[in-house]
Amino acid sequence: MKQWYDQITLDRVAEDAGVTVQTVVRRFGGKEGLLTDAVNTLGRQINASRATPPGDVERLVKHLIGDYEQTGDAVIRLLALEPRHTALKEFLEVGRRWHRDWVASLFADELAKLGATPRKLALDALVIITDVYTWKILRRDMARSVAATETTMTCMIRAMIAEFLTPK
After folding, report:
1. What is the rounded CA–CA span in Å between residue 97 and residue 94?
2. End-to-end CA separation in angstroms for the chain
3. What is the chain's Cα-based Rg?
4. Could you tell me the CA-to-CA distances from 13 to 10, 16, 23, 82 in Å, in that order?
5. Residues 6+ apart with CB under 8 A from 168
6. Where are the alpha helices (DSSP H) in the chain?
7. From CA 106, how far away is CA 127, in angstroms rounded?
8. Nearest residue to 156 (alpha-carbon basis) of 86, 116, 88, 103
9. Which of 63, 70, 99, 138 has the largest count of CB atoms under 10 Å?
């Protein structure tokens, strides 16, 4: 979570764990196996931290920002390395699909009121609004506080929903 993937060595992992490199290799099969295990563990943690009932936008954003405060910088580092590491690409594609499905489930009632094309556009907008890059722009690039980031993201979600659900 604190280093770039390509800077992590099996020697350092073994040292941190108090075991030999051979133990790490035997248990995980190498660096990619270690990544797979870490990703699975991280996925379970993210699922638990983001659990929110559909329709509760404030709680959804609070949980999402809480997750990004813990994992966002690491995910941004992984995204930066994606073109150079096949194992990362596969993991990040799973994450993208999971995020889209998660957003779709949280806004299922609102999205169900739309036709196919507006539903796809609205879902795309919600995915973008709740994406880790949006968090990065607000928190890291613009140096907004957690509270300001939550307010901005909540306002963007509400505005997008109103735009798509208001009869024209």
Report:
1. 5
2. 46
3. 18
4. 5, 5, 10, 21
5. none
6. 10-17, 21-28, 31-50, 57-81, 86-106, 108-112, 116-129, 132-136, 146-165
7. 11
8. 103
9. 138
- What is the rounded distance in angstroms from the CA atom of residue 98 to the CA atom of residue 47? 10
CA neighbours within 13 Å on the CB side: how many for 82? 14
CB environment 115-147: b (16+ within 10 A), e (fewer): eeeebeebbebbbebbbbebbbebbeeeebeee
Q: Which CATH architecture has domain 5-165?
A: Orthogonal Bundle (1.10)
Could you give the count of Cα atoms lying within 13 Å of 19 in the half-sphere of its Cβ?
Answer: 12
Residue 3: CB atoms within 10 Å: 11
Domain ranges of the chain: 5-165
pLDDT in tens, 98-157: 899 999 999 999 999 999 999 999 999 999 999 999 999 999 999 999 999 999 999 999
The DSSP output letter for 137 is I
| Residues 14-37: tens digit of each pLDDT | 888 899 989 988 998 888 888 777
- Residues near 125 by beta carbon (within 8 Å), at least 6 away in sequence: 160, 164
């379970």: which residue's tokens?
Answer: 44
